[in-house]
Specification:
By secondary structure, the protein is of the alpha+beta class. It has a single domain, classed as START domain (Alpha-D-Glucose-1,6-Bisphosphate, Chain A, domain 4, 2-Layer Sandwich), CATH 3.30.530.20. The chain is built from three helices and seven strands. It is globular and about 40 Å long. InterPro entries: START-like_dom_sf, START_2. This is START-like domain-containing protein.
């Protein structure tokens, strides 16, 4: 299997960091935009889309700032996906930073998927 390539995306978003954090860190918040349904038991999250489900372990949860997950299928690898909330100190503009990994020939597709997911998040919170 080829090594995955790390990529980072930034999305300006008009919402308070506290509100955003709820949507990126809780099963109910993630169910609103990231997956059809999300359940958690401790550090283990189950993401459900249509007929498929994926399990991820919560690696980092820093209140008001970021969450970092590793897909169970990638256990033992250095791959993860992270969603960070960034606030510009001067302008107070809020952005979501996504860090993820994909196969070299799937990066464009992975970026498009994140574009769609973040677009859904913006609709849910009224930041369109």
């Amino acid at each position: 299997m080829d090594d995955k390539v790390k990529f980072e995306l930034e999305y300006p978003i008009h919402a308070s960091p506290a509100l955003l954090y709820t949507y990126i860190s809780t099963p109910s918040g993630l169910s609103e935009w990231f997956a059809d349904n999300v359940n958690s038991r401790g550090e283990l999250f189950k993401f459900i889309w249509d007929e498929s489900e994926e399990h991820a372990k919560l690696l980092v949860k820093k209140s008001g700032e970021r969450v970092k997950f590793r897909w169970v299928a990638d256990e033992g690898e250095d791959y993860f996906f992270e969603i960070k909330i960034q606030v510009d100190e001067i302008t107070k503009d809020v952005s979501i930073i996504v860090v993820d990994f994909a196969e070299d020939d799937e990066i464009d597709e992975a970026k498009m998927l994140w574009d769609n997911q973040i677009s859904s998040l913006k609709q849910v919170i009224g930041s369109v």
